[in-house]
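Q: Given only this backbone (619 positions), what sequence would you predict?
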């Protein structure tokens, strides 16, 4: 690991060293020369130019001076056979022993994240984190009275926790985590200003505390205070023998407000790409690690129509219009992987995983705006939902593979929206499975309250509590057609008790296979031909996620034509459910092989957490 990074560092240093005239410069543009940085090359580029980037680590934010033109984009490519990584980090040197195995070094300014040989370290905290980021080690916290909560806290002097920051998740609701400042402490009581964050008012929860040097007491922890970075190395070694870096720059590329720029084949580490107000820009073949690595996310529900590049937890900021991210892998983010807003942007054939470590309102893909396409992506491992599409209208969410959501929160959809008039947003041909949240509220496709006008068809949903949830009021104008909905509790669940709120005018349910019951609050006249609970659909092997129909299934050729959504079918009529007998199942998810997901072969891979993390208490 260390060797790999060191080799890259040497490569870059060789490229820029004065006097080494035989070493290739890091970037070149045909007809314009070679440059000491990509940024210098970018400043010289004109429409139609291609910048060739040499292998190695590049520590800069690249900002072209001008836009490309239609058919004559600015292109950034990597030299053939080389690996180039733009990193948002800067190395830390000048380490001295602080005490015991803790070292200190001067680091001015804010520290967004600390990496050792490419692996993220943990801000010093109580209780200690443990090795599994998806198994938050936290203490019980309980409401005492306004401004006070009590917890299982260690013996510390009065007001020791003044200035600390607490991350907490409510136990009963457990929707989203949030953070807030502690203003004082007495014994096992924490004091804070005001009534506290949303999760607190509901009673008990779990949390951890950061912001105190005194809690730097284990391997892999760091603390930054008064311009000094303190670090206990993961192997208790001297940090000067390793590549220790701090996150400094939010963006690897700043394409905001530019048009017709294409970036291909780069690695990006501890930084995102800013496409705020961009048009017709393209990112392809990228390998991105930690597009957002800071642990400063306040949390709570904070995503709405105003999502923009300045929102907390934004990863790759895909704003503007007509931009595309494709064939890329984005992994590890305390916030979003890709944050989509603006209009008519596309995310296609990407793998986005292990995001929203903060358990906030973020997701592998967070999406709001008009007319976006989210197609053939594989999204998995998320603190909450894997796809949030709140306020997405006229959108298209098709042929994705979505799995392993709810690793740390409860009452969530693997896809989630609320208060959204989709104006025809289509959610179709997706495979959706494994919500690890607690039931009830452990949902596959969640159209939460006041959501209207979505077309949900040909999705296969399993290993969830409720395959779909549609919460009134005004759950109107939806078409739910040809889905295979297998949840342990319900095919379609619904909450709210007031009957008069259940306005589902114009919503229709047809050709679905409901393995379990659907909510009795769905008006009977909205429910057409479906295969209901109690009739065996004869799936090939549903225990292993194979929902194709066996010959003789009562779902075969017993559906209605629902133009245009039933599309091409085999036999004399459409089948019920998502997978038409006699036709090949559609392609879903990204086709990037797992062997090609890595940024660099030996860089951080989080342990595979595609299993329940809190099995004893969650499901
Ligand atoms: Ca600690
Ligand atoms: Ca058929």
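A: Predicted residues:
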């Amino acid at each position: 690991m260390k060797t790999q990074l060191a080799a890259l560092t040497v490569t870059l240093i060789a490229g820029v060293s004065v006097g080494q005239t035989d070493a290739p410069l890091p970037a070149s543009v045909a007809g314009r020369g070679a440059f000491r940085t990509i940024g210098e090359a970018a400043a010289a580029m004109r429409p139609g130019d291609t910048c060739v980037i040499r292998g190695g680590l590049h520590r800069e934010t690249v900002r072209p001076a001008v836009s490309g033109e239609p058919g004559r984009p600015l292109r950034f490519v990597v030299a053939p056979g080389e690996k180039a990584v733009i990193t948002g980090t800067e190395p830390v040197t000048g380490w001295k022993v602080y005490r015991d195995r803790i070292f200190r070094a001067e680091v001015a300014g804010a520290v967004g994240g600390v990496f050792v040989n490419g692996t993220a370290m943990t801000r010093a905290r109580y209780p200690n984190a443990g090795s599994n980021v998806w198994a938050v080690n936290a203490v019980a916290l309980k409401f005492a009275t306004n401004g006070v909560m009590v917890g299982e806290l260690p013996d510390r002097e009065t007001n020791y926790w003044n200035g600390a920051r607490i991350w907490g998740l409510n136990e009963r609701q457990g929707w989203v985590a949030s953070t807030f400042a502690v203003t004082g402490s007495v014994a096992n009581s924490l004091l804070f200003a005001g009534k506290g964050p949303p999760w607190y008012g509901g009673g008990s929860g779990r949390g951890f505390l950061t912001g105190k040097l005194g809690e730097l007491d284990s391997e892999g922890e760091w603390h930054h205070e008064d311009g000094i970075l303190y670090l206990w190395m993961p192997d208790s070694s001297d940090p000067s023998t390793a590549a220790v870096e701090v996150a400094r720059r939010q963006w690897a590329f700043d394409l905001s407000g530019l048009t017709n720029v294409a970036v291909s084949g780069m690695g990006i580490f501890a930084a995102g790409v800013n496409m705020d107000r961009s048009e017709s820009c393209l990112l392809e073949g990228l390998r991105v690690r930690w597009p957002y690595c800071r642990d400063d996310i306040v949390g709570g529900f904070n995503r709405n129509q105003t999502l923009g590049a300045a929102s907390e937890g934004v990863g790759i900021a895909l704003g503007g219009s007509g931009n595309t991210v494709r064939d890329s892998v984005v992994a590890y983010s305390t916030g979003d992987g890709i944050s989509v807003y603006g209009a008519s942007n596309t995310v296609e054939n990407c793998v986005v995983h292990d995001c929203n470590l903060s358990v906030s309102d973020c997701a592998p893909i967070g999406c709001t705006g008009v007319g976006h396409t989210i197609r053939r992506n594989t999204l998995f491992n998320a603190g909450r939902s894997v796809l949030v599409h709140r306020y997405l209208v006229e959108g298209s969410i098709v042929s994705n593979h979505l799995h392993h959501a709810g690793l740390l929160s409860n009452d969530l959809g693997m896809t989630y929206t609320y208060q959204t008039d989709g104006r025809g947003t289509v959610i179709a041909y997706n495979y959706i499975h494994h919500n690890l949240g607690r039931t009830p509220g452990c949902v596959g496709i969640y159209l939460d309250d006041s959501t209207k006008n979505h077309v949900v068809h040909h999705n296969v949903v399993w290993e969830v509590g409720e395959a779909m949830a549609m919460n009134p009021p005004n759950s109107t104008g939806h078409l739910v057609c040809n889905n295979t909905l297998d949840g342990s509790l319900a095919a379609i669940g619904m909450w709210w008790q007031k009957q008069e709120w259940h306005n589902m005018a114009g919503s229709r349910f047809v050709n679905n296979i409901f393995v379990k019951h659907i909510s009795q609050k769905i008006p009977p006249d909205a429910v057409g031909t479906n295969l209901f609970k109690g009739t065996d659909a004869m799936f090939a092997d549903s225990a292993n996620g194979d929902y194709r129909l066996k010959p003789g299934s009562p779902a075969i050729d017993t559906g209605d034509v629902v133009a245009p959504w039933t599309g091409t079918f085999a036999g004399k009529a459409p089948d019920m459910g998502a997978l038409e007998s006699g036709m090949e199942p559609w392609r879903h998810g990204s086709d990037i092989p797992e062997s090609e997901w890595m940024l660099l072969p030996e860089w951080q891979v989080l342990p595979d957490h595609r299993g329940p993390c809190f099995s004893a208490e969650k499901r």
